[in-house]
Amino acid sequence: MRLLEIADYLKKEKLDAIVLFNKSPGFDYFIGQELEHGLLILSKTANYLFISPLYSPKVPGFKVVQWKTFKKDLESFIKQHHIKRVGFDADNILFRQKKFLSKYFSAKDASKFLSGIRAKKTTEEVIRIKQACRITDEVFTGIVNGLRKGEFKEENDIARFIKISALQNDCELSFPPIVASGGNGVIAHHVPDAKLRKGFMVLDFGVKYKGYCADMTRTIYLGAPSSAEKQVYEKLRRVQDYCIQYARVGMKASKLSKHAKTLLGKDAKYFIHGLGHGIGVEIHELPSVFDKSDDVLEKGNVFTIEPGYYNKKTRIGIRIEDDILLADNGKKEVLTKSAKSLVCIRFK
Fold first, then answer.
1. Any idea where the domains of the chain sit in the sequence?
2. Nearest to 10 by CA among 49, 42, 53, 51
3. Quick one: 3-117 is in which CATH superfamily?
4. pLDDT, tens only, 26-66
5. Angle at Cα 53 formed by Cα 106 and Cα 36, nearest 5°?
6. Which fold has domain 123-345?
7. Cα separation of 213 and 136, whole Å?
8. What is the pLDDT of residues 278-299, one digit of tens each?
9. Nearest C-alpha neighbor of 175 from the set 189, 186, 185
10. What distance in Å separates the CA atoms of residue 215 and residue 193, rounded to the nearest whole number?
11. Max CA-CA distance within the chain?
């Protein structure tokens, strides 16, 4: 993916290659699949996957090099291909890996470039993210149906259902799911640990399909909400919809974030986190959508818009989140399709 841009970067920065370890998000991103082992070497002339002979993956666009004796074969490879100055992902590297790089190369931090290149999604990436979102929507429908049938008694019952549903769809979880009922909803990153309680319930989860994440939040109500509670929910829903409409290519991410605060008005003090973040092979990527962000929204970005309301005095916690694509034609597409009208579940 975007290997020509790698060559341009190497030329500009006077580097011979970029070296990535398998724990770097860029490792899976460039080879288009998940591998537990290997060393990625992206050079000016070709791209290599340096890997144990125990593995024999097929990776389009890469030459797979299997070592017999790692140290000896790597030194020979480096000498043969004249690799001296390399870029690396300083944001995702272990101390021993950094020490390894310094032993063989003159190394330069390329993490900003590597994060930036992943922000604009290719057609194949969008296809995978859309599928992750579609499955996430199906899981939400399953949660609502299960609640109506009385199948869940505790927050962790729902979290477990999300995990099992992901596995049944050949997916992983994008992150540990958040299930926060009643007053627990005021904790933005609540860990499911209680019985289901009357009131709003925040459900924040997503599946990871073929290496790509979805991230959706819906807030439903267990019981019958008061008119005041309905008003708070509808206000936040409108704010989220207005922010989706307002987002556009070329806009500063900070402007979108500040727009949400303006729309919230006096309730902005109950909004305690950023408005959104990019998604892809990682659950948090560029662009970062918060008040002090330097990022600019671009064609091909996929990011979340997720205003929240966390009032500890009233014990009301609400968050609504969708995944948004800024398409090549400048249009926007909401990838998470679950309805946002307030779902109320009969609850005793």
1. 3-117, 123-345
2. 42
3. Creatinase/prolidase N-terminal domain (3.40.350.10)
4. 888 888 877 778 889 998 888 999 888 888 888 888 899 88
5. 70
6. Creatine Amidinohydrolase (3.90.230)
7. 10
8. 999 999 999 999 999 999 999 9
9. 189
10. 21
11. 73
- Tokens describing residue 70: 């790692």
Whole-Å CA distances, 16 to 19, 29, 64 = 10, 20, 19
Place of tokens 């490879």: 77
* Helix H or strand E encompassing 68: none
CB distance 299 to 326 below 8 Å: yes
**CA Rg value for the chain:** 23
Q: How far apart are CA 234 and CA 333, in angstroms?
A: 22
Query: CA end-to-end span of the chain, whole Å?
Result: 52
At 48 the three-state DSSP class reads strand
CA dihedral 185, 132, 302, 256 (to 10 degrees): -20
What size, in residues, is the chain? 348
Cα separation values, 50 from 25, 115, 242, Å? 17, 22, 48
| Nearest alpha carbon to residue 258 among 243, 245, 248 | 243
304: three-class secondary structure by DSSP: strand
Tokens of 39: 């060393």
